[in-house]
Structure formats: C-alpha cells, structure tokens
Batch of 4 targets.
Target 1
Amino acid sequence: MMRRPAQRGNRRVRSGLAGLLTVQALAFSQVVIAEEQANAWAFNAPRAEGYAIELVSAEPPPGTPLLRGASVPFKVTVKYALDVAPRGTVILVFQDESNKVVTGERGQTTVEVERGNGTVTLADKVVVPSDANELRLFIPIMPDGLTTTTGEITLRYPITSSFSGPQYMPYPLADITATQWADYHRLVADTFASSRREFPDEYLEVFHSPDSALHLAFTSAGHPAHPAWITRKAQDGSVDQIGYFAGPEEPFSEMFLSYRALTKKTLGETADAESDP
C-alpha cells in the first residue's frame, strides 16, 4: 500500500567498523534525499546486482520527531540477500543532515552475515544531536571485498526542541503503525484526561484541549476503522481536520468524510444562527 501524507481537510467559517563506511560512500544518498525522496521518511538507494537489503521494521518508526539531547534506543530488523561474496556486514550508520556522524568515535553497530538470504535485527542507543534538524540512519550491507556500497536503507527522523503536549500533526503520514497510534493515544489521554468521554455504541473515545481548540476522536475495539483517530482544530475562524489510521483504510476514509460532513453541518448551523435577527 502506498503511504501518503496525513489526510487533512479545512472548512472556513465566515467571520567497531567506524571507518568502514566513509562519508563519500554514502554521500550520493544526499542527492537521492534532496531530489527524489524529499517527502519520504524511509527508502532505499538504487540497488546493486548481487546484494540487497530491505527494511522489515524499525523502532522508533521513521518520521517520529526526536527530542534534542535525548538518548533514544533504536531497533531495526532487515532482510538481506547476498550473492557476490561469501560474507558481508550489515551496519547502522547514524548521521545528521550534513553527513556528520553523530556517534562520535565509538564503533558502529554491525552484524556479520553469510552468503544467501536471511533476516537480522540490530539495536543501538544514540544521543540526538542538539545542533541538527534531522537524524538519518543508514543501513547498508557491505559485501566482503567491496569498499563502497549502494542500495542501503535510509530512515529519517525530524529533530525538535520540545514537546509541549499533543501536536495537531504528530506524524507526516496518515498510514501509521499500531505503536504510533498507541503512543499518541496515551499522550492525549494523559494530557486531556479531564475531558475524556466514551461513546460505547459508536466505539469512540473523545477528548478536547482545555481551550477547546483541539477535538480528538479515537476509535476503540469494535470500530471498523480501529485503530484510527480524527483531530479537528478550531483557529482564527476556521476548522481544520486531520486523520491517521493503523487499521483498514476504507472504513477510515468513511470516518474521515463523516466527520468533515459533521463539521460542515455544525458550522452552517452556527452561521445561520449568527444571521438571525
């Protein structure tokens, strides 16, 4: 399934191998990012013949905002295929948007693999740089005997200075993971606990911010779109809407459209009331 930007709507109201991979070996990835993959949080560079690597899973998920100075654990699982050499090495390479290695002089996390196909998991903990805007994790497979590589996985993470509570657009893509849904739901439930209301018949749980600017509706088990949520934001005489789903896309789209229709109806009734003598 093609991953897409977070769905939005708007309605306006009137009124050990540290030196193995050099910067030069990975520099072409910057061109890929800038020219071809500017909006992608996870992708592969052009693949080579005889070896390949593909992402299976990553924690935190690509695109997750990271806090400057925080120590963040990473865990990735990848599939590989290796035919051009009897052995190879899968490596985690952490850099910022300027190609600066952010792990200092300590060795990079590596796993040795043998000819054939397989799956491996690698883990590391990295301090998010305070002077960068983006953390990038490159995951290449380096066949023995080669000095440069291509086809590596690139994972991108935006860096932020603070988390001031639930963000209107916490993720760049509408199609999220169940873990991302659970993390955001927990943040909202903790922050807006006093506003929580349940609608068991509709399989919905709703919250709103203290200033009533944000209104959030989360699905619960039994809802056709679960897990998913819709956020509506009232600001400067307008109501914006955004949605995320980790379940089936079709019922989520129906949910999104129904909330947009509800917003339109509510705003129309408000405008009519304001025009009454």
Target 2
Amino acid sequence: MKRAARRQVGLLVAVCVLLIAAWWQLRSDEQAAPGKLLSLTPEAISRVDVQMGNAPAEHYVKRGEHWWRVEQATSTRADDLRLGELVRIAAAPVQSWQPADHYDPSKIGLAPPQAKLALDGQTLSFGRMTAVGQNVYVQSGERVGIVSLRYMPRSAQSTSIQAP
C-alpha cells in the first residue's frame, strides 16, 4: 500500500472516531438534561387557565382548531397565536430542578406567585427572576425549576375578538 493511501485511510479512521465521539457526547448531554416543565405535548392541550398576579383568572378551551375564552354565560373567540404561546410553555426547557422545600417561597416570588398557568389541570406557578441571568423560578408540583424569562406567561385577554 502506498504512503498516500495509508494516509487517507488514517484520516478516514480519525474522522470516524471524531464523529462517534461527537454522537456519544450529544447522546450523553440529552440524557443529562433536566427536561421540560411538563410532560404534556403542547398540541394535545385543550384547556388553559391563566392568572396574572391578583387579576381574575382567564379560562380558555380549544374547540376544533380555535381557542375560546369561556366565561359564565358566553364564549369569546381568543387569539390563537397568543394561546399557542401559552401552551408551548409546557415544553419549556428547564435549566435545573430542585425540591420545592429547598426554597423559601416568599423569597423567590412564589408566595404569592407572579402568575399561574394551568394546562389541562397541571398548574405552573411563576415567581421572580433569578439573581443572575434572564431566568425565572417556576413551581410544578413539589419541585421548582429555573426557565428562561421568555416563558413567563402573559395575559391572552388583550387580543380577544368577538365571535361572529
């Protein structure tokens, strides 16, 4: 075998080793990731309840392809894009999880929470921003996660439209 052919085989082996190492690292990172806020699939969510601070809770139900705000006697068509933002919060990547008893709820803004979001009955309570970075504390059940501030819910009421 000529020297050039041996060199090419050696380079091919080196590239294969690097690809395997990169695949292994990505697989390892995925397994070590803390996961997402809820196990729900955003597309499968059909009920949303959101409460911002002390304001009254807003209740929404998905009927067919559209979202509707549900009140005692009436239903009003809601902004599908805004509700889409709210249901995608379920899949927000969590930076870290800790048991809820590791925190004082009043110090991280969870007593009372800044916002509450219930997606198909699973409640997320949003607290204050973390001391470092653009992140926020979120309680889900008996644990508290840290997620990006962009996942903090906002009211969907402002863009509701009246159904014809």
Target 3
Amino acid sequence: MATASLSISAESGKGIREYVAIALDVLDEMGIRYQLTPMATNMEGDVETICKALALIHARCHERGAARVGSLLKIDDRIDTAQTLESKVAHVEEIRKRSG
C-alpha cells in the first residue's frame, strides 16, 4: 500500500475550500482512507487508485467552474514492508523517545 500527500489549487475567483471539499468527496466515493491537514490531504491506497482519484478531482473542479486546477501529489510506494499513515508517524515518535 502507498501513502500519499495531495495539495490542490484551483483558479476560479473563489476560495480554495470548495475545491478541497470536492477532493474529499472524491476520496470518500472511491473508498480512499485520508487525513485532512491544514496544508494537504494525506491518504493511503494503491498507486493506481490514487492517480485515478486525482484525475477525477481535476475533472470535478473544472465542472464546478475552475478554469485552472493545479495539484501536487507526493507518493511513497513501498513493497518491502506494510505502511500506514499512523505507522509512519509512530516510527518517528519511537526514534524521538529513544533519543530523548
């Protein structure tokens, strides 16, 4: 399973919140587990599904009036070990405990 981080921007003369909500609706529809943060949305899933979701997010933003949609998608795709959003945070916290 991959973990990913998505930041979206849309040019429509409106705020970005509406387009973030569209992105979250798409992730919900596709069954992608995610965590919304102030600067990005982190998610888990297979790479193909995440990429399909991104394409659908762009299409939906255009349908809602955005003339221009930008996205920044960062994917961490590991096949040597299982990872989740929580496990990545837990590993860092464990290191901090040992060094603190």
Target 4
Amino acid sequence: MSVPVSFIGRSLGVLHSIGPVQETIEDQTSDNLVYIATGAGSRIGMLRSMAKTEVQATTDALTTMFNRRAFESPGPVRASAPAATRSATAWRT
C-alpha cells in the first residue's frame, strides 16, 4: 500500500508499506498509515517552513549575504551560507 505524504496540498513523498503479495490490508492498518503519513507531512512541512523563514531572517534578499541579525544572534554564524553568498564572498577576497 502506498500513501501520499503532503503538506498544504504540496506533495512531499510517498509512504510505502510492504507485505505478502496476496494479503489484504485491514481498515485499521490503512487508517493508521494515513494517520502516520498526515503527521509526517505536517512535521516535514513545518520544519521546511521554519528553515526557510530562518534563512530569510538572516540573509539580505538582494545580495543573499548574511545581515546584521545573523551576526548579532546569540548562536554562532553558520558556516554553510547560501551558494550565492559563498561565491560573492570568494569574489571579494
């Protein structure tokens, strides 16, 4: 059985369940797989949304370089900057 994993109408993947070829899947098992796929889709979608928001909050939209917020945050500035930032930084040095 395959159950689509989605978040707000956007497809994220598929949850596959394997078993014997001729065995039928009980309704309870099918419902559980749908429940797991829905929960996984919600969690994955939320984590992606939070990561995107964090990048938007710490980088300049025009140059894609780190902004003041990134340097003033209590945590360390990440070494894994967006690709455009790395190339712009390498060009300046």
